[in-house]
# Entry
Amino acid sequence: MAKRRTRLDQPREKGTTWIRKPRGLNREAFGVLSEKFARFMGTPQFILWMTIFVAAWLIWNTWGPADLQFDPRDLNYTLLTLILSLQASYAAPLILLAQNRQADRDRVALEQDRSRDERTLADTEFLTREVASLRLAMRETATRDFLRSELRDLLEDLATEVDHREAKAARKAKRRAKAKAHAAAAQRPPTP
# Structure
């Protein structure tokens, strides 16, 4: 039986668990649900409805009939604070789970890009050797200037490709930073 190789970029999983995993729990379905939840939490629609909910709560419990107030101002809106803290305590781990899934997808895409780049480089080197061998076969030696111009063209193509991928990676990093900032803002309880 082959020993499983451990990856240094991933934490080890524990061998034994104290709490059993529920039978009906599907990690993939839960991950998709957490991503949908995280996306919804980042929409203007959610912020608008949350603002309306909090404003209605505060208005009712501040200026509503005293006998119908369920979270009076005298108690500093304790129930509202509890609800918002509970919502933040569930939102933060779900957002982090969604970010981890996105990071896994980014890592896989990066590995695929790297392998494709290696294949492209190998193909380019092979084609360069083939062109040089064809020139030699035709008794036309490849001059230094020709090789330099060919290599310069290849270098420009590779530089363009690298610039494109760096710009793509920068956009992804900017989106992740924005999501982390949003998650950090969601964890802070609002001040009454």
Summary: Helices lie at 27-41, 44-63, 78-137, 144-187. The chain has a mean pLDDT of 83. The longest helix spans residues 78-137. The CA atoms of residues 131 and 142 lie 9 Å apart.
